[in-house]
Specification:
Number of domains of chain A: 5
CATH architecture of the largest domain in chain A: 2-Layer Sandwich
Order of helices and strands of chain B: HEHEHEHEHEH
CATH architecture of chain B: 3-Layer(aba) Sandwich
Strand order of the largest sheet of chain A: 3-2-1-6-5-4
Strand content of chain A: 15-25%
Number of domains of chain B: 1
Number of strands of chain B: 5
CATH topology of the largest domain in chain A: Beta-Lactamase
Largest interface: A-B, 29 and 25 residues
Shape of chain B: globular
Structural class of chain B: alpha/beta
Strand order of the largest sheet of chain B: 2-1-3-4-5
Number of helices of chain B: 6
CATH class of the largest domain in chain A: Alpha Beta
Oligomer: heterodimer
Radius of gyration of chain B: 14 Å
Number of strands of chain A: 23
Radius of gyration of chain A: 66 Å
C-alpha cells in the first residue's frame, strides 16, 4: 500500500505546496516540557545494551526508545537506500528499517528521495515538523493512520545526513515540542555513532571472513602443492635431500638413499654428512657451491661424485637452495648420471675406435661445407698431410701440399664439386716437405647437414704403399718380360756363341789373311795393316760381348723346386692384365683344382707362359671382326703329366709352319729375333716335357706344353743343366 | 799355308784378263759386316775375284748370279736365310756350289743343306786352310 517503487505518482489531485504542510514556528513557540534526563539516560542505557546484545536491532531499539520518550504514536527511522534493503547514502529512496508504534506494520516501506518529507528534511538539513503530509504527498495517504503531526530529525552518519528519525502523532491529543526535537536529535546522534561503530564491526567481520577464506584457500593450495611436490619427492626420478646447518643430511627420499645405498636408519641417526659423501678431489667444487649459497641463497647445478656406503662412486648432478630466512637449512636435488656417463664413455670409445681405425687403414676423413668453405679434418688426415693437428684448414693450405703437377687437377675438382653438387672420387699426389711423394685416393659424398646446408663428407686413403707395390709389380713384370726375351739354357748359349762368333771369326779370318799378305812376294804390307786393324777391333768387340754376357749371367739363379703351375700361371696373368686389357683381350682361366706340382725352375716356366701369352696377343692384334679371346687351361694328363694350354682366336698358322715355328730364328715379326718359341721349347724340353702347337677348329691356334708331375723320389727330378758354363761345342 | 798353284793360276789368269765387273766370282753373302770385310780379302789372297753382299736379295738382284762360280753363304739371315737362298737358286736352275758358314751348330740344318747339295758346312770361326779346302771341294764337285 505504500509506494515503494520510488517513482512519482501521477495524481489527479493537485498537491499542496510544501509550505502548507510545514509548521514552521510551532516548535519554537510551543511550550516545551522539561527534559526528563533520567528517562533519557535509561533510553541511552537501553540503546547501549541493545548494541552489546544484538547489534542488528539497534534501529528498532532506537525507534522504541523514541516512541517511549516522546510519547509519540509512531516512531521510526528513514535511511537512504539504493536497493531498498540496505542503507546507502547515494540512494534515491528512503526505506524504513525500523518502526515502533501504530505504523509498525509499515516497516520496510519508504518514500522517494526527491518527493517526500524525509527528502525535504535532507534538502534543508534541519528538523521539520509536518502536518497532514498526504496533502502534498498523495502516496502517503495509504500510510494509515494519517499523520496529524510528524517530526523529522536528520540522521547523520559520518557527518552526512543519510536519513531521518521521525515521530508521528496520529491525533491532536499531543503535540510535538522543542524538547522532542532535542531528545530525538540527541538519541539520533548516539544511535548514529552506534550505527557507525556497528558498520565498522560489520566491515571488520567481512574483512576477517574474507581473510579467513583467503587463508583457507592458501592452506588448500599449499596442501595441494605439497602433495604435488611430495609426488616428485616420492617418485623415483631424482634424489631429494635436506640438510641442516651442521652439514648433516636430515631428510632424503628413497631415490637418494638407493643412489648412495644408505638406509633410513643411517639417516635418522644423523650419521650421513656431506663430507662423508664427497670424495676429496671434489671438495673444492663444494666450497664454491657453499660460497654461492651464502651469496645468493642457491647454487647452480654442478657435476661431482658421491661415495656410496660401500665406498664405490656414483657420478651425480647436484643443485640446491637454502630455505627462506634463517639459517643454513636447505634442500637439494641429486641426479644420478651413471647412465649418461656410460653413454658418454661409449661415445668416447667409439670415437677412439674410429680414430684408431682411421690410423690403421691410413684413411682420414673430412667435411667440407661448400657455401662457406669451412673444412674440418679428422686427426688421421692431419697425419697424412703432415700438418699439426688442429691447425685451421683452408683450400690454400691444402694446395701447399698438393703435387705441383696435380694442382690444376685439384682446382678442377673444387670447381666441379661446387657446381655439380654430386658425389665424386679422385686420385692425386702430395709432395711432402722431404720431397717424397704420397698417393691419395679420395671419395666424397654430398649431403645436407642438420641445418640444411650442403656439405661434402669424404674419406681419403693414403694409397702410396699400394701404388709403390703396383710400380714394383710393373717393374717386376717388365723384368720378367725382359728375362723372357733374354736367351736361356742351350739357346742362350747358342746366342752367346753367335754373339761371340762374329768377332772371333773376323779375327781368325783377318789373321789368316794377314799371314798370306805378308808371305806374298812382294809382301802386301798395307793390306796386312788393314787386317791387323780389323783384328784388334774385333777382339775388342768380343770382350764387350763377354762383359755384357757376364753381367747377364750374374743375375741368373739356378732353381729346382716344386712348382705349382696354377700359381705360376695366376702370377703371369696378374702381371699381364693391363696389357691384355689394353689389347681388348678377354681372358678366361680354367685351372684344374687338383693340379699336381712339377719340378723345375718357376721363373723359366713363367717365361714360357709369358712368351706364349705374348705370341697369342700378337696373333690377335690384327683381329677386328671377332672377339679376341684367350683361354688358359691347366689339367692333369693321364695322371702323369701336367698340361698347360693357351688357346687364342688369332690369325693362326699354316700347317706347314707347325714345326718351323719352333726353329731358332724363325720369326714373323720384323723386329723379332724369333727366339721366343725356340727358347720356350728348350726350356720345356729341359723340364723333360714337350711344347707343341695346333690349329683350332675355328679361328686361332692352341699352344700347349706338358711336363711330368713331380716324383716323390728324386731319381728323375733333377734338371741336368748347368747354366753357368756354355756347352763345350757351342764355340 | 800353300796354295795349290793350278787353281789360283787358272783363276788369276782368267780374272786379270777380264776387265768386266763380275767374272768368275766367289761371292760372300752374310749379314755380318766383319765377315763381309775380311773374307773377300782372304779370297783374293787365294787368287779369287771376290764380292760380298749383305743379303740374299741383294745378291739375287745384283746381276752377278750368272758369273758366280762359288757362293760362301751365311745360314742365319733376316728376310731370306741361307738355306732359303739355296732353294731359290735351285728353283732358278742355278747350280752354284755353296759353302755354308754359320756360328751355330745345328745338326738338323747341316744335314738338310748338305742333303740339298751344299758343298760344305763350316762352323765359325774357321781357319783359312779350312776355307780353302772347302772351296777346293766345291769347285771339284762341279
Amino acid at each position: 500500500m505504500t509506494a515503494t517503487n520510488g517513482s512519482m505518482l501521477e495524481t489527479s489531485i493537485p498537491t499542496a505546496p510544501l509550505e502548507s504542510i510545514l509548521c514552521k514556528e510551532a516548535l519554537q513557540s510551543r511550550p516545551s516540557r522539561s527534559p526528563d534526563f533520567e528517562k533519557e539516560n535509561r533510553a541511552l542505557v537501553k540503546l547501549v545494551s541493545a548494541l552489546a546484545d544484538s547489534p542488528s536491532t539497534i534501529f528498532q531499539t532506537l525507534a522504541d526508545t523514541i516512541l517511549e520518550i516522546t510519547q509519540a504514536d509512531s516512531a521510526g527511522l528513514s535511511l537512504l537506500t539504493k536497493d531498498g534493503e540496505t542503507p546507502h547514502m547515494d540512494g534515491q529512496r528512503f526505506y524504513w528499517p525500523a518502526i515502533a508504534g501504530m505504523w509498525q506494520l509499515h516497516v520496510g516501506g519508504g518514500t522517494p528521495r526527491n518527493f517526500g518529507p524525509c527528502g525535504d528534511v535532507l534538502d534543508r538539513d534541519r528538523t521539520l515538523l509536518f502536518t497532514h503530509w498526504e496533502r502534498r504527498y498523495p502516496y502517503l495517504s495509504s500510510a494509515v493512520p494519517f499523520a496529524e503531526e510528524g517530526l523529522l530529525v536528520p540522521f547523520y552518519v559520518d557527518g552526512k545526513a543519510v536519513g531521518t528519525i521521525w515521530g508521528i502523532m496520529h491525533s491532536a491529543h499531543r503535540k510535538f515540542d522543542a524538547e522532542d526535537d532535542r531528545v530525538m536529535a540527541s538519541l539520533g546522534k548516539f544511535a548514529s555513532s552506534a550505527y557507525q561503530a556497528l558498520m565498522r564491526i560489520e566491515d571488520l567481520k567481512i574483512q576477517v571472513s574474507e581473510r579467513e577464506k583467503a587463508e583457507a584457500e592458501v592452506r588448500k593450495l599449499a596442501s595441494g602443492l605439497e602433495s604435488k611436490i611430495r609426488r616428485l619427492v616420492e617418485a623415483d626420478v631424482v634424489g631429494i635431500v635436506m640438510w641442516n646447518p651442521d652439514g648433516v643430511i636430515t631428510e632424503a627420499n628413497e631415490s637418494f638413499l638407493h643412489m648412495v645405498q644408505y638406509d633410513r636408519h643411517d639417516l635418522t641417526s644423523g650419521r650421513v654428512r656431506w663430507t662423508d659423501l664427497t670424495p676429496f678431489e671434489w671438495r673444492e667444487c663444494d666450497y664454491w657451491a657453499i660460497a654461492q649459497l651464502k651469496k645468493t641463497g642457491a647454487f647452480l647445478p654442478y657435476e661431482k661424485e658421491f661415495f656410496r656406503k660401500d665406498g664405490s662412486r656414483v657420478p651425480i648432478l647436484l643443485g640446491g637452495a637454502l630455505f627462506d630466512g634463517s639459517g643454513a637449512d636447505g634442500v637439494a636435488f641429486v641426479l644420478d648420471l651413471s647412465k649418461q656417463k656410460r653413454a658418454q664413455e661409449e661415445l668416447r670409445r667409439s670415437e677412439a675406435f674410429l680414430a684408431e681405425a682411421q690410423r690403421l687403414t691410413h684413411i682420414g676423413s673430412y667435411s667440407w661445407r661448400v657455401a662457406t668453405d669451412e673444412i674440418k679434418w679428422s686427426e688421421q688426415l692431419y697425419r697424412i698431410y703432415e700438418f699439426e693437428t688442429g691447425v685451421p684448414i683452408t683450400l690454400e693450405l691444402i694446395r701447399t701440399r698438393v703435387h705441383p703437377e696435380d694442382v690444376t687437377l685439384i682446382e678442377k675438382m673444387v670447381e666441379q664439386a661446387k657446381n655439380r653438387l654430386d658425389d665424386f672420387e679422385w686420385q692425386y699426389r702430395l709432395l711432402m716437405p722431404d720431397h717424397s711423394t704420397k698417393y691419395l685416393h679420395a671419395v666424397a659424398h654430398v649431403t645436407r647437414d642438420r641445418g640444411g646446408q650442403l656439405e661434402y663428407i669424404a674419406a681419403v686413403q693414403d694409397v702410396t704403399a699400394r701404388r709403390l707395390a703396383e710400380e714394383a709389380r710393373d717393374q717386376a713384370r717388365s723384368e720378367l718380360a725382359r728375362v723372357a726375351r733374354a736367351v736361356t739354357l742351350g739357346t742362350m748359349t747358342a746366342s752367346i756363341a753367335h754373339e761371340l762368333n762374329q768377332p772371333l771369326s773376323g779375327i781368325v779370318t783377318n789373321a789368316g789373311t794377314c799371314q798370306r799378305m805378308l808371305g806374298a812376294v812382294p809382301p802386301n804390307v798395307d793390306g796386312a795393316l788393314e787386317t791387323a786393324r780389323r783384328t784388334i777391333r774385333d777382339a775388342n768387340r768380343a770382350s764387350e760381348v763377354i762383359a755384357r754376357l757376364r753381367a747377364l749371367f750374374s743375375r741368373k739363379e739356378i732353381a729346382t723346386e716344386s712348382v705349382d703351375l696354377n700359381e705360376a700361371t695366376r702370377e703371369v696373368i696378374a702381371l699381364s692384365l693391363s696389357e691384355l686389357r689394353r689389347n681388348e683381350i678377354v681372358l678366361k682361366a680354367d685351372l684344374a683344382d687338383d693340379l699336381a706340382p712339377v719340378t723345375g725352375d718357376r721363373i723359366q716356366l713363367q717365361e714360357v707362359i709369358l712368351n706364349l701369352l705374348h705370341n697369342a696377343t700378337d696373333a690377335m692384334s690384327a683381329v677386328h671382326d671377332r672377339p679376341r679371346e684367350l683361354l688358359i687351361r691347366t689339367e692333369v694328363d693321364q695322371g702323369k703329366q701336367v698340361r698347360l694350354s693357351l688357346k687364342d682366336s688369332g690369325v693362326g698358322f699354316a700347317p706347314q709352319d707347325a714345326d718351323k715355328m719352333f726353329a731358332a730364328f724363325h720369326t714373323t715379326k720384323p723386329e723379332g729375333m724369333g727366339i721366343g718359341l725356340s727358347i720356350s721349347r728348350s726350356i720345356i724340353e729341359a723340364h723333360q716335357g714337350r711344347l707343341w702347337a695346333a690349329g683350332n677348329e675355328g679361328a686361332g691356334a692352341t699352344f700347349s706344353f706338358s711336363i711330368p708331375c713331380r716324383q716323390k723320389g728324386l731319381a728323375h727330378s733333377a734338371i741336368p743343366i748347368d747354366r753357368a758354363d756354355p756347352p763345350a761345342d757351342a764355340a | 799355308m800353300d796354295v795349290a798353284p793350278t787353281m789360283s793360276h787358272c783363276f788369276a789368269m782368267e780374272s786379270s784378263k777380264d776387265k768386266g765387273k763380275c767374272q768368275h766370282l766367289s761371292v760372300v753373302v752374310d749379314d755380318d759386316e766383319s765377315v763381309r770385310e775380311s773374307l773377300p780379302d782372304l779370297l783374293r789372297e787365294f787368287g779369287f775375284a771376290a764380292r760380298a753382299f749383305s743379303s740374299a736379295r741383294e745378291f739375287l738382284l745384283s746381276g752377278c748370279v750368272d758369273e758366280t762360280r762359288c757362293l760362301i753363304l751365311d745360314i742365319a739371315m733376316p728376310d731370306m736365310s741361307g738355306p732359303e737362298l739355296q732353294q731359290e737358286l735351285k728353283r732358278l736352275g742355278r747350280e752354284i756350289p755353296i759353302i755354308f758358314i754359320t756360328g751355330q751348330k745345328d745338326e738338323v740344318i747341316r744335314a738338310q743343306v748338305l742333303q740339298r747339295g751344299a758343298a760344305a758346312f763350316l762352323l765359325k770361326p774357321f781357319s783359312d786352310a779350312d776355307l780353302l779346302a772347302a772351296i777346293k771341294t766345291a769347285l771339284q764337285a762341279i
